[in-house]
Amino acid sequence: MMHACANTCRIKLKQHDVSRTIKLWSKVIVCVTTLAFIALYIVPAGSQQNFSLKKLPISRKESMNSLGLGNNPESRPLSSVLVRTSGTRSGQQAVKRTPYTRRNNMGPCLAKFGNVTIFIGFLKNGWEGKKYRVAQSSIQCYLKGVNYQLITVNLRKDVRTREICRKYKKYLFKRHCIAAEYLKDTDWMLVLDADTGVVNPNHCIEEWIDDRVDVILYERFFNSEISAGSFMVRNSEFGRDFLIKWADREFTLHEGWNGLDNGVLHLHVLDTLIPDAIQERKNCHDIWFNATSYETYLAVVSCVRQALGASRLWPGKLRFYSKAHGWVRDGFLTSNKWHDGDFMIHLWKGNNLTKDGRGPPFTEMPDLKSCGNGRNGWHWNETKHVDVEEIKADLARYEKTKGQMYPSFGKQVFFLTMPVIGQCYPDCERLT
Q1: Of the candidates 166, 180, 296, 326, which lies 20 to 30 Å from 71 by C-alpha distance?
Q2: Averaged over 351-377, what is the pLDDT?
């Protein structure tokens, strides 16, 4: 085909034959366009990448399926007319996550990613103190059946980090400094709030470890924040540095509604992942600095999320899980109902169980003397253990309602309401 097009393009046009000239020029244009298309998409010589051609979608249903949005389970995303079917670009291998089989029937959690440590910081009397006995009893029961290490640290009195983390005055930021120090003793660390408990012990932490990244976060359901309460970090230079720089943002707090470590986490993620987005970062920083209420603070969350786009994975750096897809979620979203895919629940505050069904879904506190042998020691309220479709329906209703009630400050389209190049021109891409 290429030879035929080239031969046609080389035909000498006769000036006296206008009709023929027009026809030949039409062929020339078609040939040039075809050659340009092939040159643009053809695999370079020496490459090991293979492509196949797919027809463009011809209906809305086919279009939705091609984007992976249809009901056809066999559908695959179609990013363009050309789809790579095999091979990789010269010398570059596709980044794939190491698979980890979901825990079955309370079996062992294989240490595929090395040692895993759970880190919990507290202020007063440890997990046996006020507010957290139910949540922490469930953690203790769970740990009897797995091979993870638990570190509980008094954030005010920890001897090991007293000098290293002395400069941090707010305990939420000091926690990140202390966690960075203890991270040196393990391979992966799961940091938990003290009010987070295990609802379903038939899971391993490794099910949520993504070894393509060093920091793993998750999105809270009710306000779309990237949560600061629980996260996973790999013992790497990037992981430790991420925690220290997060802690250092204590010294950037303003007097308004700053969101403390959760507020600056959004800016920290933004600055870490897209440092070259000069104007977008400035916009989000300006919104944060001028936030005076929870409603105006949510504009910061929306600004950062819009700047990051739909991506949730940045290989070698960070990933954050979508709403209700992480290892933990807030219990009130489903009235503390849970299904087999759930692992941990956040916001279990209290030392005792309640009988009104509004608290943790247990009929009795976990029996620590019996824990460690299968499901022994766990006393669930079975009316709270439901199938995934019921949870899905609850979450869908909550998502719709919360979206309608979301403050108008957070519903802005910031690339329309704020500068894109107006303040940084002509240097907006100097870091790209």
Answers
A1: 326
A2: 90
